[in-house]
């Protein structure tokens, strides 16, 4: 009987496991492996970092949502020995496979930036998200005693999706902490290298987001290239100038980009930022028994010739096709090509606002209605990958 091993129970891994349970021939062994017992809604980590959600609000037990025919194993993957078709672990005996799915998700990327590891706080999982809130909270609390103005300053490095959604959520956090510790104004600054934020959105929507954040007191520096992080400052240059400027802050948060899992690189695959370029069928050219989905994969967009941007929505769309293709391989049937049609792009600006650009029909939404669109798209994803009707919503 065929043995399928799925590494990672994020959106991609869970999505494949549930679909395979329905489609795979009876007797197929399906193992789903993750180092954690819980699936974490990584697109909601910013809420834990801002203190507006608790870890349990954005996570759920993997075992509770998978079909009976899927066998869950909690273990930490070390590498995939693809020559011998087995997976090695740091805390479990090797597991052999006929087909393996790499769906191990992302990690924060610091691009070797001086001081980033030492002096800034990355956002990549529950512990790092909790640490961010702890640092912000304790700096505000300590201000009364320290009278250090940097205690009141928060710097968010990078204004991609993660940075923007965190900034939006921090608006309320700042109000709450200001009142709680009776401190003067809390200053939040975003430092972004690109000339404009949110280039993936229509310019009107991106401008709405900028205006919203500015109106709520957030300072946005664009065209500001971060050069290093110091103990209490983000050092950057503007435009062509070499002159170093600083944003001083005791809470420095790093959201400057992500890579795929280090397991991908450590296994010796050909990678760029720990991502493997997959075929149109979502497997690897020289190893068709290895499928890759989500943040560990680079699916080339035929229109641009560049990898599609990684999102939860993309991971789940890939999961659908990869599951069908694994079953086709088991049945010696032809494989299906992956064609991605994004349903749209949404970003939240705090719990009740956001921007959204839907594709079919093409509509642009702002404010509360965009935030509702984000919540419902999130619920669709959740239902498909876990069969549940939503986690606790923002208050
Ligand atoms: P990202 O790569 O999307 O954004 C990083 C930002 O940092 C970019 O705007 C980049 O210009 C900036 N940057 C890079 N180097 C810099 C430097 N030296 N100085 C200043 N700025 C610099 O990364 P992310 O925001 O962490 O998102 C990670 C992935 O997760 C993305 O693929 C994103 O699409 C996805 N995501 C999607 C959603 C959503 O769909 N709502 C939410 C969160 C994350």
Automatic annotation (TrEMBL):
<dbReference type="InterPro" id="IPR036188">
    <property type="entry name" value="FAD/NAD-bd_sf"/>
</dbReference>
<keyword id="KW-0560">Oxidoreductase</keyword>
<dbReference type="GO" id="GO:0003955">
    <property type="term" value="F:NAD(P)H dehydrogenase (quinone) activity"/>
</dbReference>
<dbReference type="GO" id="GO:0019646">
    <property type="term" value="P:aerobic electron transport chain"/>
</dbReference>
<dbReference type="InterPro" id="IPR023753">
    <property type="entry name" value="FAD/NAD-binding_dom"/>
</dbReference>
<dbReference type="Pfam" id="PF07992">
    <property type="entry name" value="Pyr_redox_2"/>
</dbReference>
<dbReference type="InterPro" id="IPR051169">
    <property type="entry name" value="NADH-Q_oxidoreductase"/>
</dbReference>
<protein>
    <submittedName>
        <fullName>NADH dehydrogenase FAD-containing subunit</fullName>
    </submittedName>
</protein>
<feature type="domain" description="FAD/NAD(P)-binding">
    <location>
        <begin position="3"/>
        <end position="297"/>
    </location>
</feature>
<comment type="similarity">
    <text>Belongs to the NADH dehydrogenase family.</text>
</comment>
<keyword id="KW-0285">Flavoprotein</keyword>
<keyword id="KW-0274">FAD</keyword>
